[in-house]
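Batch manifest, entry 17 of 40.
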Amino acid sequence: MHENARAKIVKISDNIIKYENMKIVISQLTDFFHSLIKKAKNNLFEELLLMNENEVKNLILINNIEDSLNKSRVNFYFIDYITTKQNLTTYKKFMIKRLFNVNDNLLKQFDTIRNNEFVYRQKNVNEYLLNRKKFLEYLLLLVIK
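Output type: structure tokens
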């Protein structure tokens, strides 16, 4: 890439920078990221887990989940991070178990039973996949924060 073709960050003032054709007001970034966190949480609980945050907290001790950034390795899977304080492998089948519970909203959202057979609601499945993509986009924006 030619030197002049690279994107550059230009300081306009103490509170404003320019990146490509965008002006970014640094003092407003906090509100922007708080908004992203709120959207990601709402998307996770309401659209993906189909449970409110308190229901999830009663089933999964979210505040006790730990991760060790210093112990990263190839093919590391977060849920397999087992310590004396936590064992997340118990949650591996959390969503699958919900799909087999006839009283669960997740099953009602995606399946219906006709003539003793499960019938998937394809429109709802497609919408769920779009919501999953939206959640991953929120996470991506928050990770690069």
